[in-house]
Automatic annotation (TrEMBL):
This is DNA/RNA polymerase. Transmembrane segments: none annotated. It comes from Dacryopinax primogenitus (strain DJM 731). Gene3D superfamilies: 3.30.70.270, HIV Type 1 Reverse Transcriptase, subunit A, domain 1 (3.10.10.10).
């Protein structure tokens, strides 16, 4: 494969953040191949939440979760430290802008809190335990993947992960 050329979507900094061969498991030629695959599919990666995107509703129907009969809940939030308020507001505004959070007029209110990530940004966590208690559990059996796995025996496979 050709040598890595940084671009707008996949910079050298992004590549360094991935730490592709941290355990030294891959040979240098394999690392070069991984870099080439990443460059070939660079538009599949997003380094900002606003650019992640969503499935278009013309192609995928909204997911509807069946529930059992229950009473509505309105749980209070865990109090935030006043020093974090501006950062929390900014995080929520970014999630609204990205389409992760959408306006709603719901009679339900689940509690939420924030957790500090390694890079010192905040990650909102929504407590969905009450929802788990009223959802109808699926009794579907997971698909058998043995026949699918056997068909790939002896072939090279690539796995692309969400590094965001």
């Amino acid at each position: 494969p050709p040598p890595f050329q940084p671009s707008i979507c996949l910079t050298q900094e992004h590549l360094d953040d991935m730490n592709l061969n941290a355990t030294k498991f891959l040979w240098p030629a394999e690392v070069d191949l991984v870099k080439w695959v990443l460059c070939t599919h660079e538009m599949a990666f997003s380094w900002e939440e606003v650019k992640i995107g969503q499935f278009h509703s013309d192609y995928f129907d909204p997911v509807v979760f069946p529930t059992i009969e229950h009473t509505l809940w309105q749980h209070k939030n865990i109090l935030l430290a006043p020093a974090l308020l501006d950062q929390v507001i900014q995080t929520i505004c970014e999630k609204i802008q990205a389409g992760t959070y959408k306006p709603a007029q719901s009679a339900y209110q689940s509690s939420w809190f924030v957790v500090a990530k390694k890079n010192r940004t905040l990650c909102p966590v929504i407590d969905l335990q009450p929802l788990n208690g009223v959802m109808v559990k699926s009794s579907l059996v997971l698909p058998l993947t043995e026949h699918l796995i056997k068909s790939y025996r002896g072939h090279s496979c690539y796995l692309l992960l969400d590094f965001f």
